[in-house]
Write a structure and sequence with these properties.
Adenylosuccinate_synth_dom3; ten-stranded mixed β-sheet; EC 6.3.4.4; ligase
């Protein structure tokens, strides 16, 4: 380290690490672009990531597991991703599964095989997996189902993919990491047996064929070894070298374990904080934060949904939008766009811009409503309720805008959109005070309009 008494700078190996004046920034600052879901998920993040990955060197997943589902359409082919970063389709990109992700290895290899058959090539040279990521074991998936069954009518509607029990193991410090599988297998075996015994004490009906599982994971260790490395130091070196990094958040902000509609949430931080903890990145490297907003609102599973529609319009949105979960195959609940939700997640995540997706699904509507406020006990509230009882009882204040009643699927320029569609976009910008940078009007990468 070199420093002088009269210098305001501190350098390490020639790299500026701190500066008390605005003359120069670290080479690492603002090198990372983040894409986050701004509602309850299923906003179309995969398509946005696929678009931005063309200009990126590295695409990362930072949290969640194979409970997430992203669909990407490339040259008419539909790819479904659950654990893999959507950017893996871009052969110029490295794809990182970060330390904050929980990984079900059987599911990962199945996903790789299915997408390879659809045309995904050379992934072996581009996929990197953190040695700090935790393993989702089949026993975790069994526990997920047993826990849901125990709750009965109070079940949370989980995907039963074992995500919650795995994060519970992680927090209880008896979880098993990828690095454990890469090390001395006898130590992995000890940890596995101990975890299995612990879980069976909690759930006596749990069935675990320990010997069979150990044999299977011995094979997985050999298969996954070439992909595993310390992703923290790797990412920092790549960012310092000027590489462009794109981070794909799984799930969405309203499913965040801290800020979402608890307990109807996922088990990780799928807001901006999860990017830092799930990849080992400092906040200063984050530049653009793109919030992906569906032009209406959907959610899968249970929990309050203030703008949900139980009428023909809700059915129309579900049908036209093909609103079926990629992971669960469950029909999504549909409702009007709730900007109270998006404003709240914008507060948490600090969106620098918005990507508005599936605007074309509204093509046939004569009038379109947008939720812009909540009343509770007859009074307007200026916060998003943390209490699910309160959220279930809010009365939504709406504004009503005229629809455009024509197809916009073939539009590729902002000024070619119907006036009513542009007014809808403008209303969103005005309310959020965040610019809409991209607009999706169809399923493919080429159907995203740049609004700049």
């Amino acid at each position: 380290m070199a420093s002088t008494a009269d210098s305001k700078h501190t350098e390490l190996n020639g790299e500026l690490t701190s500066c008390s004046c605005p003359c120069k920034k670290s080479k690492m600052e603002n090198k990372v672009t983040v894409v986050l879901g701004a509602q309850w998920g299923d906003e179309g993040k995969g398509k946005v990531v696929d678009l931005l990955a063309v200009d990126s060197d590295i695409v990362c997943r930072c949290q969640g597991g194979n409970n997430a589902g992203h669909t990407v359409v490339v040259e008419g082919k539909e790819f479904d991703f659950h654990l893999l970063p959507s950017g893996i389709i871009n052969q110029k990109c490295k794809s990182i599964i970060g330390n904050g992700v929980v990984i079900h290895l059987p599911g990962l290899f199945e996903e790789l095989k299915k997408n390879e058959l659809k045309g995904m090539q050379n992934w072996q040279e581009r996929l990197i997996i953190s040695d700090r990521a935790h393993l989702v074991l089949d026993l975790h998936q069994q526990m997920d189902g047993l826990q849901e069954a125990e709750k009965g009518k109070n079940s949370l509607g989980t995907t039963k993919k074992g995500i919650g029990p795995t994060y519970s193991s992680k927090a209880s410090r008896n979880g098993i990491r990828i690095g454990d599988l890469m090390g001395d297998f006898s130590l992995f075996e000890d940890k596995f047996r101990t975890l299995a015994e612990t879980c069976k004490r909690m759930f006596p009906s749990l069935e675990v064929d320990v010997e069979s599982e150990l044999s299977r994971y011995r094979e997985y260790a050999d298969k996954i070894r070439p992909m595993v490395r310390d992703t923290v130091s790797f990412l920092h070196k790549e960012i310092q070298s000027g590489r462009r990094v794109l981070v794909e958040g799984a799930n969405a902000a309203m499913l965040d374990i801290d800020f979402g509609t608890y307990p109807y949430v996922t088990s990780s931080n799928c807001s901006i904080g999860g990017v830092c903890t799930g990849l080992g990145l400092p906040p200063k490297v984050i530049g653009d934060v793109l919030g992906v907003v569906k032009a209406y609102t959907t959610r899968v599973g249970d929990g309050p949904f203030p703008t949900e529609l139980h009428d023909e319009t809700g059915q129309l949105l579900q049908t036209r939008g093909h609103e079926v979960g990629v992971t669960t195959k469950r029909v999504r609940r549909c409702g009007w766009l709730d900007l109270v939700v998006v404003r709240y997640t914008a507060m948490v995540n600090g969106y620098t811009s918005i990507c508005l997706t599936k605007l074309d699904i509204l093509d046939t509507l004569k009038e379109i409503k947008i939720g812009v406020g909540y009343k509770l006990n007859g009074k307007m509230i200026d916060y998003f309720p943390s209490s699910m009882t309160e959220l279930s009882n809010v009365e939504v204040e709406y504004i009503t805008l005229p629809g455009w009643a024509c197809s916009i699927e073939d539009v590729r320029q902002m000024d070619k959109l119907p006036e009513q569609a542009r007014a809808y976009v403008k209303a969103i910008e005005n309310f959020l005070q965040v610019p809409v940078k991209y607009i999706g009007v169809g399923p493919g990468r080429d159907s995203i309009i740049s609004a700049e």
